[in-house]
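Before drawing any conclusions, I looked closely at one protein's amino acid sequence and its backbone structure tokens, quoted below without any editing.
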Amino acid sequence: MSNSLPVLKLDPRTYDRALACVHCGLCLPACPTYVVTGNEADSPRGRIQLMRGLSDGVIEPTATVQEHLDLCLDCRGCETACPSGVVYHELIEETRARLMKLEGKSPSIQGRFMQWLFFNVFVYPTRLKLALLPARLLQKIGVYKFLRETGLFRLLPSQLKKMESMLPDNGPLWPRPVIEEGFTKPSYSHDQRMRVGFFQGCIGSVLFDRVNAMAVDVLSASGAEVFAPRTEACCGAIHHHNGAHEPAMAFARRNIDAFLIPDHPEPDYIATNIAGCGAMLKDYDVLLRDDPKYAARAKVFVSKIRDISEVLAELGLPEMKHPINAVATYHDACHLAHAQKVTAAPRTLLAKIPGLKLVPLSESDLCCGAAGTYNLTQPEMATVLADRKLKNVDETEATICIAPNVGCAMQIQSHAAATGRPLKVMHPVELLHRAMFGEEN
């Protein structure tokens, strides 16, 4: 064990987070995996003990230990529940990074392929567009739907099958940036004015480009001048949550340079409508705390990150002349509710939409199983959690489930389709846009 101990020993600043845990158990009902399995090793306090044991060298990094740690969604529900302020996500993310460095811990062939996709395709929009182009062409000519109906895709390995099931229908062949160049101009007379940088995301800019475009419309209509730099990179969450911290740090530096340009006016806020990206962007000060060049700039950058709902709530919305007569329920994305502590702003905005009836959702802040790439690496647990989420949605009798995150939307919508539920999953921005501008042509 002496050879692996230096690799697994946690940074003292991170290790202190583990020592703050008093084992009270208040995190247990907030942990999705513990709720499902009832296994102490699948709970936050159980995993903290495992991580401390690995760091102290008193337990071996066996396959069983790694399975319990890999099953964690990193949803951060435990952080909301914890009375001692344990910052759990720093523990799990650093431990995963150190486990990756151990020899003999390589994933399966399918796992290595998925990791290659995550690190080399998903996080680069142009590569992702190219990878999706054949599927988009088949969708346009009507062949893709036929292939799904024949059950051909059921022959795929579990992770690839899950990935295929989440591909949204009828996307553009080649999504374009939400702002071609320069800035949008505020289109609504308002006392307040803001200069807002808009973070598009990597997967979000490709699979949810339409929602991003709506977000820019809504921000502009509410009085903001919006810019979206072409030099923006992936937020780094996919690498960071999978233990690859160096590439995540490189993405962080690039994004800081893209939005905080020397000798240029700083934006009032940097907004995103993707909860997972927002949570990662707000962690740049920790990620780069030892970087002498970027540590101070990272703190400035983090101070400007806001979810789009927070920005719109501060700006104030224009008159919404188009009622939406529907029953909807709101799902709290983990990385918005637990990581960013934003729960009130989206509900306040949605309550202003004429005609919309918002019904409370039981366990609204319990993870749906998306968790970034978790639903691809742990499809069985992800499916159990998606089913639990949709059973709660069923009880509301809502026809619309509102989800403020790309991953949540794909997870809930695909599982609804797979189980024959006529449910429409929408981002809050989509509903606000419809209420402001009417139905799309």
User: Anything to note?
Assistant: The radius of gyration is 22 Å. The mean pLDDT is 92. The chain has four domains: 5-100, 109-165, 194-313, 320-437. Strands lie at 194-199, 224-227, 269-272, 305-307, 326-330, 356-359, 400-402, 424-426.
